[in-house]
Amino acid sequence: MALAAGAIVGTWFWDVTHDRLTVDDALAHAFGLEPAAVQGELRLDQVVSTVHPDDRAGLEQAIAAALRRGGRYSHQYRTRGNDGQYRWIEAVGRVDLDADGRAVGFPGVLIDIDERRRLESERDQAQVLLRSFVEAAPGVVYAKDRQGRLLIGNRGTTELIGLPPERYIGRTDAELLSDPVQAAAVMAADERVMANGRSEQLEEEVSFPDGRRAVWLSTKAPLRDADGSVVGLVGTSLDITDRKAAAAEHQEIEERYRLAARATNDAIWDWRMSDGHVVWNEALCALFGHALTETTAQWWLDNIHPDDRQRVDDHIHAVIASETSSWTGEYRFRRADGSYAVVLDRGTVLRGASGEPHRMIGAMLDLTSRKAAEAALAESEERLRFATEAGDMGFWDVDLVHDVLIWPPRTKAMFGISAHVDVSLQDFYGGLHPDDRAETSAAFAAAADPALRALYDVEYRTVGKEDGVVRWVAAKGRGLFEGDRCVRVLGVAIEVTARRLADARLKELNEHLEARVLEEVMERTRAEEALRQSQKMEAVGQLTGGIAHDFNNMLATVIGPLDLLAARLGDQDPRAKRYIDMAMDGARRAAQLTQRLLSFSRQQPLQPVPVDANRLVAGMSDLLVHSLGSSVRLETVLAADLWSTFADANQLENVILNLAVNARDAMPGGGRLTVETANCAQEDASAGSVPAGDYVLIAVADNGSGMSPEVMAKAFEPFFTTKKVGQGTGLGLSQVYGFVKQSAGHVRIESGIGRGTTVKLYLPRLMAVVDPLPETTSDDAFEVVGGQELVLVVEDEPGVRQFSIDALTELGYPVLAADGAAAALKLLDAHPGVALLFTDVVMPEVNGRELADEALRRRPDLKVLFATGYSRNALVQDGMLDPSVQMIGKPFTVDELAMRVRAALG
């Protein structure tokens, strides 16, 4: 039967004792023996003679070894068949030994393994070819599995990582690369290629172990198995650092040339002499009205005034034909409106290695504008002279090089000197009032100092040299410098004696008014500062709320899939479970951080109930004691007949606990923490105090280190903390602030260095009678189980939508899914069996609340469960959640989803 099946190609039996070898026809055929030889006695050497010469010695050694040891025998070799071709066979047999250990019998069979050996040879050749190709490929060549672990890498990969292959094969970039940002970027790109199943070419920044940095052009493609499924990634990378640097340098040079051409007021031209093509900058249009950027050299020559054209043409070509490179010419150039401008044109010839001219670059300056500017300057100076005379101002000019002072008669009069008397710089210093001489002299010295070059702007008194009259003079001026030397100081002076006397009288009259105005201004400044602080906190709150919403959506696609993955793996892979637990812990802490951001920004949903603050504080005493530790003593002072307030009890407990932990940290050596309640009737609100009204006061006080005024001013700002790095997020008091404001209350801090800190929470008194909510017992808790009801999932984020589908399916629910309201309503109409609408709140075009309203209009019995990353939407009224609304916050786990779905369906 084995022979008929084709697995065995022949059998033999060798009577070792009598040295008789018996074979069947199939074996004889495999060894190329004549059929007649099979009928007689065969010798072993006859059979061995048909074995391939390269395999013969090995076969004889294998037979000898089997005869010595006995037992199982197996050996592979090639035999020549009747067709003259060699084929690979495997001989499998058994050597029987007698009691003395001598071989007596040796039966066995032959198995055809030629095809198997051929495939193995092809496989080995392919592997050698692959290894040779990978090693010979330039740059980095590698392959990774679906988890990003390296499968193979060439020499470039080894150089980049800085480790031998046996130390990096099987490890991820996050484990190998020293730069975590670089590793994260590489793995993110790999995951994107494997996820979308498409090849990508991208540039990546890499760091070598020796500190070098480079830019790689990477090509990445998905690695697929025989079924076409993506099982990993293959990639190659080439170092393009030098190419990038060269391109950047070329671009920088081009950009410099472009910016220089745009920045100048001259008309820049670039003349290519091979074809006469000329490129102009934008100044050609700005200066002369020609809206052109490219012309011919003949066009330029045609627009030169006919009387200047030949001269310019001859001159410029003479320079080109000579060995010089610079050319300058002055001529009249025609504007677009037909008028002519006088221009100064300059150019430089760019020559090749042999001196042949290639290009000429130059700049054309419109001298008409310069002449107009010079005329305008002369006119301006004349106007200044008239103005100084008309304004009764005195001009002064000090020539420091020649020690000359120039004063017109008006300036001399300010120093009590007659108009015809010559003056010097000594007359200036001698005429200054003794009380003003030092300050005025210092100001003049600063204006003449090359290092300072200050503005000379002083008011001083003069004592008339001839009349002895004291006058007030206001003077302004500047120094004129040549290099690092001041050559002149000049300016104007005006007598202000009458103004100074009037100012003195006015000051005397307004002394009391100024005091009152100063007080009012200070009060207004305090109010404006409070308003700015409030606006700043509101703006930061809106920003943090938006960030938290987007971050919650991202965390939903992390926590949920990790939860599903942990359930799938179970305990079969402890290492994977540990990694998942680490990731879940980080994601949960990130979710807690977003909740604090939402609390600060007043965008978290509150579920307020009537709260007895005395009962709440007493009920959490044990929790506070355990949180504070043995070195801090807790005291509670609870007021009798305390009013009720309307607040979210769970959030209020978190606020008190947060304040207690902050107080504990402020008392590292131990101390006393007091939690006090009281009724507070605020009758009148002065600036900075709590507005009028009835409040339930909860005060948390410690006798710790206290806060400085600067710290108190920033205490409620998000991310502000005085703790060491890693010991605080800076969101604790921000969360307190957000909750109290969302609850229509107020919070105040009283503190001082060494005097401890007291934080007072003012929550509005509950005036209406509201039935308290029934306490939840353990019997009311929902089991974390699934069901059979049909659920319609509506979510515009693909990742969150897929996780919701997978989680509900895992729980046993049949699921339909839609990415928006339009598709959801079609599915709802087509499937009457939908029992629950599970929809996101914030969606484009039609939000979750609007979708639910329309769905309930069509199906009044439909149950609805909302999901949201934050609650600033139609679900919240005045910052509080409608008690009838079923909602789950993002991110959520499978267990949380199961509980909320059962609650909604129930």
From TrEMBL:
Q: Which residues form the PAC domain?
A: 73-125, 200-252, 327-379, 456-508
Q: What class of enzyme is it?
A: transferase
Keywords for the protein's UniProt record, in alphabetical order: Kinase, Phosphoprotein, Transferase
Could you tell me one molecular function GO term of this UniProt entry? phosphorelay sensor kinase activity
Q: Tell me the SUPFAM superfamilies matching this sequence.
A: ATPase domain of HSP90 chaperone/DNA topoisomerase II/histidine kinase (SSF55874), CheY-like (SSF52172), Homodimeric domain of signal transducing histidine kinase (SSF47384), PYP-like sensor domain (PAS domain) (SSF55785)
Question: InterPro entries of this UniProt entry?
Answer: CheY-like_superfamily (IPR011006), HATPase_C_sf (IPR036890), HATPase_dom (IPR003594), His_kinase_dom (IPR005467), HisK_dim/P_dom (IPR003661), HisK_dim/P_sf (IPR036097), PAC (IPR001610), PAS (IPR000014)
Question: Which stretches make up the Response regulatory domain?
Answer: 790-905
Q: What is this protein called?
A: histidine kinase
- Residue stretches making up the Histidine kinase domain: 546-767
Q: Catalyses which reaction? A: ATP + protein L-histidine = ADP + protein N-phospho-L-histidine
Spell out which residues are annotated as carrying 4-aspartylphosphate.
D840
This enzyme's EC code(s): 2.7.13.3
Query: In terms of domain of life, where is this protein from?
Result: Bacteria
Domain PAS span(s) in chain numbering: 23-70, 126-197, 253-323
Question: CDD domains from the entry?
Answer: PAS
Family matches, as NCBIfam families: sensory_box
